[in-house]
Amino acid sequence: MRVTVNGEVREIVSESVDALLDELDYEGSHFAIALNYDVLPKSKWAETPLQAGDEIEIITPRQGG
After folding, report:
1. What are the mean pLDDT values of the chain's consecutive 10-residue runs (65 residues total)?
2. Which CATH number fits domain 2-59: 1.10.10.410, 3.10.20.30, 3.40.718.10, 3.40.50.2300?
């Protein structure tokens, strides 16, 4: 299915948010997920299905000044 991840249209096979993170090789737990502009609690990642056309933002912290 086709979704947008961080502004880039992608063809994915994942059916849930946590499966998408695995598919994209994200490791660790220091990031947040916004699905269609709503921040999604980590406790909901496994049970939240993805649908064609969804917009997913994977937000990672950055150091800087």
Report:
1. 97 96 88 95 95 95 73
2. 3.10.20.30
